[in-house]
């Protein structure tokens, strides 16, 4: 093909344009794939003997360096495409106008040719050189990184002097601005960022509601301590050394638990843990005069401030299902079980003997909540900002608002009203939560 000035466009010119577009796409795909792929999956493929996975592992282990290589490759391919592509396409269009013998000036033809060539090259660059490779790399990151790693390593080694120079210059400029250059470690996400990623994945349908809740519980799990999830001392069901065997046996059969703390005189003196099967063994052997201390197992004790992840580790190590929680004065604060800990991750685990009421019940427009709910959970559920350094539960906080708490006592917080609905002796066990109307809320705020 030849224009009036003798300019020709060869097949090589067209092939070069397509090559540069695909080359740009290669580096884009390599960049997104190495960031998206899971390093643990690459390690697994290496262990399975996948040869290409070894190259991929080398790339992901030095991500900073190879990201710089992909950026250099994208820049060179884009510059080459702009240099070769627009002039080639413009020449094709100019020749086409010449062949049509249209009555237009050479300047007009040139302007039209430049505009069309710019649009064509931009379209090819964005669609084939950017968007398509990016989508491929995101949805097929594993296969893409395995395919691109080898050529990328070759490119990196060939261009290493340029990459080193460019990286050094860029890092020096960043330091001049008082900023420390970023590293691979800083690409890791903190807790809040991961929570946002989980939320976005849930909203896009990648995670269902159960999986989203599980992720949230995992983060909350590390912040929980034994005091926050234990069965409090007042709710502990104990067997007693100084009581007749039949009384202890009757209590064990009535309560239907598998393990009971064994107390001597009172709950501050827990001498062991008794398993229900050992009680039945004693009953069947006719050894009812035997002291329960002889069949009790050594109790595991943990401080009330210990993180529950550490409590779980101790229970696993000791092969025990129950630990006695000790307060700061050395007395018994409560008990915590492996079930209590696992429920922090997966939610309530009910068996055929559990008759516990749900923590939250709805009655029309009102809610009934268990007073053992943590203040943090109440704040999150109702979007409140209740703070207390002395108590952990909403029941304890409401109790502290009164000199003599009683059923029907009310506490207003923002546009909500907490009403003591049930008590066990002096302990608040259940609260009713009402939403105040705007007028009532303003009046409550004025009185406060």
What does this structure look like?
With 448 residues, this protein is of the alpha+beta class. Helices cover 55% and strands 15% of the residues. The protein folds into four domains: 11-184, no CATH class; 191-221; 226-346, CBS-domain; 360-447, Uridine Diphospho-n-acetylenolpyruvylglucosamine Reductase, domain 3. The protein is built from 17 helices and twelve strands. α5 (106-139) packs across α6. It comes from Tumebacillus permanentifrigoris. Belongs to the UPF0053 family. It is found in: Cell membrane.
In short:
By secondary structure, this protein is of the alpha+beta class.
Topology:
Blueprint: H1 11-36, H2 39-47, H3 51-61, H4 63-100, H5 106-139, H6 141-158, H7 160-176, H8 191-203, H9 209-221, H10 226-229, E1 231-232, E2 239-240, H11 245-255, E3 259-264, E4 266-275, H12 276-285, E5 300-303, H13 308-318, E6 322-326, E7 332-337, H14 338-346, E8 360-363, E9 366-370, H15 375-382, H16 394-399, E10 410-413, E11 416-424, E12 427-435, H17 438-447
Parallel strand pairs: 2-3, 5-6
Antiparallel strand pairs: 1-7, 3-4, 6-7, 8-9, 9-12, 10-11, 11-12
């Amino acid at each position: 093909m030849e224009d009036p000035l003798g300019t020709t466009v060869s097949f090589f010119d067209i092939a070069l344009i397509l090559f540069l577009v695909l080359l740009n796409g290669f580096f884009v795909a390599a960049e997104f794939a190495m960031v998206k792929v899971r390093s643990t999956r690459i390690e697994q493929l290496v262990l399975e003997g996948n040869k290409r996975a070894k190259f991929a592992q080398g790339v992901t282990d030095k991500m900073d360096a190879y990201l710089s290589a992909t950026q250099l490759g994208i820049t060179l391919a884009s510059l080459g495409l702009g240099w070769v592509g627009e002039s080639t396409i413009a020449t094709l269009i100019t020749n086409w106008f010449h062949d049509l013998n249209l009555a237009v000036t050479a300047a007009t033809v040139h302007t039209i040719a430049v505009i069309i060539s710019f649009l064509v090259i931009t379209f090819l660059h964005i669609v084939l050189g950017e968007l398509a490779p990016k989508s491929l790399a995101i949805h097929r990151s594993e296969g893409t990184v395995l395919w691109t790693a080898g050529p990328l390593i070759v490119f990196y080694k060939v261009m290493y002097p340029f990459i080193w120079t460019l990286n050094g210059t860029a890092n020096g400029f960043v330091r001049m601005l008082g900023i420390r250059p970023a590293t691979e470690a800083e690409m890791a996400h903190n807790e809040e960022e991961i929570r946002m990623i989980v939320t976005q994945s849930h909203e896009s349908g990648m995670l269902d509601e159960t999986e989203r809740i599980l992720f949230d519980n995992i983060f909350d799990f590390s912040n929980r301590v034994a005091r926050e999830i234990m069965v409090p001392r007042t709710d502990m069901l104990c067997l007693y050394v100084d009581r007749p065997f039949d009384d202890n046996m009757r209590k064990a059969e009535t309560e239907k638990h598998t393990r009971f703390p064994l107390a001597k005189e009172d709950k501050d003196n827990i001498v062991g843990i008794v398993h229900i099967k050992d009680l039945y063994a004693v009953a069947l052997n006719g050894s009812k005069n035997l002291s329960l201390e002889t069949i009790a197992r050594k109790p595991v004790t943990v401080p009330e401030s210990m993180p529950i992840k550490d409590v779980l580790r101790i229970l696993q190590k000791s092969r025990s299902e129950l630990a006695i929680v000790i307060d700061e004065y050395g007395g018994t604060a409560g008990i915590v079980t492996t079930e209590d800990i696992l429920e922090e991750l997966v939610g309530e685990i009910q068996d055929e003997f559990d008759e516990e009421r749900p923590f939250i019940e709805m009655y029309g427009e009102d809610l009934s909540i268990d007073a053992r709910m943590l203040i943090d959970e109440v704040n999150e559920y109702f979007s409140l900002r209740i703070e207390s350094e002395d108590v952990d539960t909403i029941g304890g906080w409401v109790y502290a608002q009164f000199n003599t708490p009683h059923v029907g006592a009310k506490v207003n917080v923002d546009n909500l009203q907490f009403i003591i609905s049930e008590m066990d002796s002096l302990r608040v066990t259940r609260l009713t939560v009402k939403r105040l109307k705007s007028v009532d809320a303003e009046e409550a705020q004025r009185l406060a």
